[in-house]
Structure formats: C-alpha cells, structure tokens
Design goal:
single chain, 620 residues, mainly beta, Immunoglobulin-like, 8-stranded mixed β-sheet, 6-stranded antiparallel β-sheet, 3 helices, 5% helix
C-alpha cells in the first residue's frame, strides 16, 4: 500500500527500527516532515527528472508503507535527544548539543565553533555505521543551517569512510542561515571524490567497498574559517533498507542492535532476545553464527530445523543458516530464536561469551551483530569434610578438608584464625566450620561444612627422680599403634636404671606421637663409711696401703692424717687416693696416727655434710 502526501519534490522511504514501526510513530514522523520548509538541493546524476535547486520548493512527499513493516532506513529526527551524535574538530563541546525546539521542525542538534583553528563536524552514531551495502544507489538526506558561510575553507562537506577508503563530497551550494535540505546520491558518478575534494572519482568497486562497512560518517558544520560561527542539523536519513537487531526493543540494555542475555546461573542460555528483527529489500542468502571466545567445552547448537532454512554445522563454534531460495527473514528469525549456548565442562568457566551473527544478502555482508552471554555459574562450596588432628599438629587449611571440587574465594564462619581459612589445633577448639558463598544479585550462594576433631595425645609419664639402685619401668601408652624407644627398643616396657632423657616416638590412629621423660636419681640413705685402723707398708703385697672407703655418691671429700706432733702427713680429695706410709718422700715411723674426714653427699635431693675421725696404726 502506498500513501502519497504532496509535500516535497523528493521521495522518503521511512521506517522505525528494523522496519517494525507503529502507525502512531509513522504519522508522527509524517507530521514532522509535512512542515519542512527548506531549500532543496539534490545531487542525482542521469535521472529522468532534473534535480531542482530553488528557494521556493514545491512540496511533495511519498511515504512508502509496506505492511506489516516499512522499508527501513537509518533516521535521526532529534525529537527526543541527540541520539548519540557527536562533534569533532574544534567545537565548544564534543557532545552534539540538543535543542528540543528550532528544528525543521521539532528538535535538532547544534554546535558553536570553538575557533581554535580546526573545522568541526557532526559525527554520526553507530546505527549509521557498519554494513550498508544496500544503500548503494540510494540517498543520504539531511537538513542543515549555518549562520555564516562567507569565508568557507576547502574542507569536505560530507565524509564517508569504510574499507580503508575515504569518500568526500563538496557542496556547490553551502547551507543558508535558514534550513537547507540536501539529497546526496550514493553512487560513484554523483559528485563524490576519493580522499580530498579534488581527488579522483571513485570506481563502483570503491564505492561499494566503503558501503560494505562504514566506519565513519561526518557532516561538516563550520563554514566560516576564522569567525565563531554556529550551525545545526536535522532529519538525517541514510536509505539503507536492511535492518538487523538481536533485541529490537533494547530491553537488554544495548542500543546498537546487539543483545545482552540475562545473567545465567547455569552454563546454558538462549543466544538472542525475544524480539529479534531482520528485514531486507532483497533475499537473505545466509547467516554465519560464530562463537568467538569459546573453549573446547563450549558449543552453540540448534534442534532439528524444518524447511525452508538449511543448517550446516561446521563445528561446535560455527553454524551457518542457508536460504535455499524460498526462505525469508521470518524463517531465519524462527531458527535464530532456538539457538542455544552450552558449556559442557564439569566446572564451567565464568565470564561473558560472545556470539557473532553475520548476515549475507545479495550485496555481500549486509550486517553484523553480537550477542553477549554473561555466564555466572553458581559457586560450589563443595561437599562436607571432616578430620581429626592432634593438638600439636601445625596449622592447616580447612579448604583442603572439603570434598567435591569446591570453588576458592568463599568465606569461613566462624573465621578460624588470623590467617583466613587456617585452623590452629593448639589455639582453637574442635567444632564445625561453615564455608560460605553468599548469594549475589546474579546467582544463589552455597554452603558446606568442615567438622574438626582434636585428639589429645597420650603422655608417657611426668619427669621423675628415684633412689639410687632402684629401677624405673617406662610403659608405652595403649593408644600407640607403632612405637620405638630412643635406644631403638620396641618393647612395651623399658627399664631405666640410669639418669637421662628417655624418648618414645610412635603413631596413634590419627596423628604422630612423641614424648620424653627426664629421669633423675638421689640417695635415699646415708653413706656407710669404713676406715681400717692398721696397715703394714712393708711392700709384701699385703695391706701395704691405707684409705677410707666411702661407697656412695659424694660431692666433696677431704681426708687428712696427722702424726703425734700434729703435723699433716697425708691428705686426699678422693676416696680412691691411698696413703703408702711415706711422708715428704720418707718412710713414716711406725706408730699411731690420727685422721679426720669431712664429706658432702646428696640425701633425698638435699646436700648434707658428714664428719668422721679416728686413728690408724702404721706397722713396719
């Protein structure tokens, strides 16, 4: 159905995003364009109707309404905002300034020259970029005003960049202070040049190469090289009838045709939104679907697809949808809605997966969009674990006790020590400790538990002291399954008759064991002193020497022998020292000698001093 309104002497093909536009919106757009009052400048070579350039236009507008959709175009009317347009060069601001009034009609964007020496441009947003190969042979249209063009420079008025090539257009007639309308025919013979305004005329292949992937569209806003001038832009239309949007209502939060899936707490998610959009003037040949950052366990998949669309699966990361000849956009959309992503790994990798859709039509690559799939796999706290340790066990990680491949990064409650997640048996009590992943806005949490038991190791016995000549019997604890005494013995009972440190090393059911006993001895009775009262130092080998016999552990010993005149004839500091009957190197005379003895010895752990005296008869 075609509805023709007599407004302007050129034809507009209008549509909402991707072609699905409401009648309410359609007539709102029509209402805007029905009030256009701008000089019309059209560049259309070799057309049957001569282009006109006049100050008093004849109003005529044809709106092509194709039900249920409308022939699509990229349009900026600026009725609700600047729609992502920017400025560069030397403007006073890099964000295009939006004005809700003053447009042609309605809203517009405008900018003032910063007068720093450059030339400023209006810069188009993302929807005017990308594959626009079907715009070949159609128009770029816009309304513009400039308050001063009395001293223009040689900069291009429109710049179109893509495929490594820059196309420029130089207006023969510059914009007036009132709104001026331009129609730029998108074909190599319509006045475009390569690189500069005096560059070569582009070839058809070059022009199509630019449209195959437009990376920049700029419209000049400054037309007085030195003065602070001002200009505005409205009603920009790039007649590209192709529209591809993975999320037409932008409910996922992305506005450039891409789609961001709702956060998935499982490793599986649908790849496109509920309302993907695909329109094209001609048939769609195929759609390549590529998982860009998949691992060996990632895959994209489709169920069995009925005709007419054919599905070719190259591998888990690459699927192609092919039109055998009778498929339309609706058929492609029906298939795309069934596309699923899956991470088949036992422990899926958390992150954002990217799936790219490349649509090929008669002109080649017509459009590319991406789906972003945030995969936040639920955290795993693992399976419960338990352990029993000794009080003398070194601090250890509770995480190592959990089972079932838990994720790192959880928290412990109660926190077991100053070192997060470590349990010190010498300082902490036995009990149950929770390993927790709190729930987040993306996914539920998880909790697991570790039970810690503490085994109190047996003891050998306290350090002890016993009487000399007694024997202490050390008995190994019953809890030991294996053991060895420090002397290498593995007997159950170790007799101890000498002072020292005695160690037992062993193994209980749950931990290593090691304990030592310090064994000391003391005298439990006084020494029995014996001193002979006669000796015969005549070298006959019988009773030739004299000594005091002290058969006990002494600490200090002093024995002295005196003659009748009180002279010291013999002294000893050890009971083993003997008097041979000589004094000062000479034989002592026969007779009676007096001795005196003093010694220190231990008794029940205390040092006691004893005294003794008597006489001895020397007989020769």
């Amino acid at each position: 159905m075609i509805i023709v309104f007599p407004v302007l002497p050129y034809t507009y093909s209008l549509a909402g995003k991707g072609g699905a536009i409401s009648l309410h919106r359609l007539f709102a757009i029509f209402d805007k364009f029905s009030h256009l009052s701008a000089p019309r400048i059209t560049y259309t070579p070799n057309l049957q109707q001569k282009p006109s350039c006049c100050m008093r236009p004849v109003f005529q507008l044809a709106l092509l309404l194709l039900l249920p959709g409308i022939s699509a175009a990229q349009i900026s009317t600026f009725d609700t905002g600047n729609e992502g347009w920017r400025c560069d060069g030397d403007p006073v601001s890099t964000n295009a300034m939006w004005n809700s009034i003053g447009g042609n009609p309605g809203g517009m964007i405008e900018m003032t020259d910063g007068s720093t020496g450059g030339t400023w441009y209006f810069v188009a947003p993302a929807k005017f970029r990308g594959p626009k190969c079907d715009a070949y042979g159609k128009f770029l249209r816009y309304d513009q005003f400039a308050d001063d063009h009395s001293n223009p420079n040689t900069f291009a008025d429109v710049e179109l960049i893509g495929g490594g090539i820059t196309l420029v257009f130089d207006h023969p007639i510059l914009p007036f202070p009132a709104w001026t309308h331009y129609d730029l025919f998108l074909r190599e013979d319509a006045g475009w040049r390569v690189g500069t305004t005096n560059g070569l005329v582009p070839t058809q292949a070059q022009f199509k190469q630019v449209l195959a992937n437009i990376t920049s569209l700029r419209i000049r806003g400054e037309f007085h090289h030195f003065a602070v001038d001002h200009g505005g832009l409205d009603n920009v239309i790039l007649e590209s009838n192709f529209a591809f949007d993975l999320d037409a209502d932008n409910s996922s939060g992305l506005t450039n045709g891409d789609y961001r899936a709702d956060t998935s707490c499982t490793p599986s998610v649908t790849v496109v939104g509920n309302d993907p959009l695909l329109t094209a003037e001609g048939p769609i040949d195929s759609i390549q679907i590529l998982l860009l950052n998949g691992t060996a366990m990632d895959q994209i998949s489709l169920p069995a697809i009925p005709p007419p669309i054919q599905v070719v699966v190259y591998d888990a990361h690459h699927i192609t949808l092919i039109n055998p000849g009778n498929g339309g956009p609706v058929d492609f959309l029906a298939v795309m809605k069934q596309l699923q992503y899956l991470d088949a790994a036992v422990h899926p990798l958390q992150g954002v997966r990217r799936v790219e859709f490349q649509v090929y039509a008669g002109c080649g690559l017509a459009g590319t969009q991406r789906a972003f799939l945030p995969i936040y796999t639920p955290p795993s706290a693992g399976l419960p674990g338990d352990t029993t340790v000794c009080t003398n066990t070194s601090p250890f990680s509770l995480f190592s006790v959990l089972k079932g491949n838990p994720d790192p990064g959880g928290i412990w409650f109660p926190e077991p020590s100053t070192i997060p997640g470590f349990f010190d048996p010498s300082k902490l009590a036995a009990g149950t400790y929770a390993y927790i992943f709190p729930p987040t806005s993306e996914c539920p949490g998880d909790t697991s538990f570790v039970s810690v038991g503490i085994e109190i190791p047996p003891v050998l016995r306290p350090d002890t002291t016993i009487c000399f000549d007694d024997v202490l019997y050390l008995v190994r604890p019953n809890a030991l399954l294996e053991w060895t005494w420090s002397n290498g013995s593995q007997q159950d009972v170790l007799p101890v008759s000498e002072p020292g440190v005695y160690t037992l090393i062993g193994q209980t059911e749950n931990c290593l064991f090691e304990d030592s006993v310090q064994v000391d001895f003391f005298a439990c009775k006084a020494c029995n002193l014996y001193v002979p009262n006669v000796f015969t130092p005549n070298d006959d080998g019988n009773n030739d020497q004299w000594q005091a016999f002290l058969p006990c552990r002494w600490l200090r010993f002093r024995l002295e022998v005196y003659d009748r005149w009180g002279s010291l004839v013999f002294a000893a500091d050890d009971p083993e020292q003997r008097w041979d009957g000589y004094t000062r190197g000479k034989e002592a005379m026969s007779g009676v000698y007096v001795w005196r003895l003093e010694w220190d010895a231990d008794l029940f752990g205390n040092t006691e001093t004893w005294h003794a005296k008597g006489d001895v008869t020397l007989v020769r």
